[in-house]
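If you are new to this repository, start here. Below is one unmodified record pulled from the training split, so you can see the exact layout before writing a loader.
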Amino acid sequence: MPLSRSIARANRKITNPITRRFAGRLAPFAILIHTGRTSGKTFRTPIMAFPVDSGFAIALTYGRGTDWEKNVRSAGQCELIYRGRTWTLTNPRTVSRESVRTAFPAVVRLILAANHVDDVLLLDRSGA
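And here is the target side for that same chain:
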């Protein structure tokens, strides 16, 4: 089972503010910029993103249905700041971890497997 929602809430209040200080510059930490489905507000969510040929892979460590994932799916796009560069990403879709396994370093693959994280959000670089 992916990580619990209580861990997600703790990360939102404690870990995310710390991670925002370096995310976007230090890979694999990135900033996902997305628009709220109902509020229209712009959010900047720190995540771990891994490049693939067509775009980026983001493991759904809390399972499907997080607010940021719903926002990205609803909009059909988002922006990602990765290594100081901003990418426009489109075509969000869920794929299996195994289908993009080479995107993740070995230690990340082990952690994802140990936590039963099987779903990955795959996004294409705009124009890729």
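Two things worth knowing about this chain: The chain has a mean pLDDT of 88. The first strand starts at residue 29 and ends at 35.
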